[in-house]
Amino acid sequence: MLRFSRRDIADLAVWHQDPCVSIFLPTRRSTKEVQQGATRLKNLARQASEQLIRAGKRPAEARELLEPIRSLIDDDWFWQRQKDGLAVFFSPGFLHHYQVARHFSEVIVVARRFHLRPLLSLLSDDAV
């Protein structure tokens, strides 16, 4: 897990290796519900793949880009140590995720830059 900081948002803001995929989702701290997070992320990754294909990527390219996120989906230890929200950012050769004490709605954005708006409120409070 990476702890979110002002430096992180600055680094994410300047990253522009197309495509940049941003995924936000609510997670649960309860160990009884940990599989829900993995299932949610798997479904959101599938939707991101569909968006990548609609944006012109070949299916094989979309699968390759999403491969690193599969390690998070399959990591039981990771899901047992969640906070309230998870932000995942990936691009060719880049994967960062942040677990924060802030509930996120499910959001997927595929663009030339990372979608950072849901994180901005974290800069002014202790929800990290």
Radius of gyration: 14 Å
Output mean pLDDT: 89
- Per DSSP, the total helix count is 5
Instruction: State the domain count.
Output: 1
Tell me the layout of helices and strands.
Blueprint (H helix, E strand, L loop, with lengths): L5 H9 L5 E7 L7 H21 L4 H15 L2 H4 L5 E7 L2 E7 L6 E5 L5 H4 L8
Antiparallel strand pairs: 1-2, 1-4, 2-3
Helix pairs in contact: 2-3
What does this structure look like?
The protein is an alpha+beta fold. It has a single domain, classed as Translation, Eukaryotic Peptide Chain Release Factor Subunit 1, Chain A, CATH 3.30.960. Helix content is 41%, strand content 20%. The chain contains 5 helices and 4 strands. A 4-stranded antiparallel beta sheet has the order 3-2-1-4, covered by helices on one side. A hairpin with a 2-residue loop joins β2 (85-91) and β3 (94-100). α2 runs antiparallel to α3 (59-73).
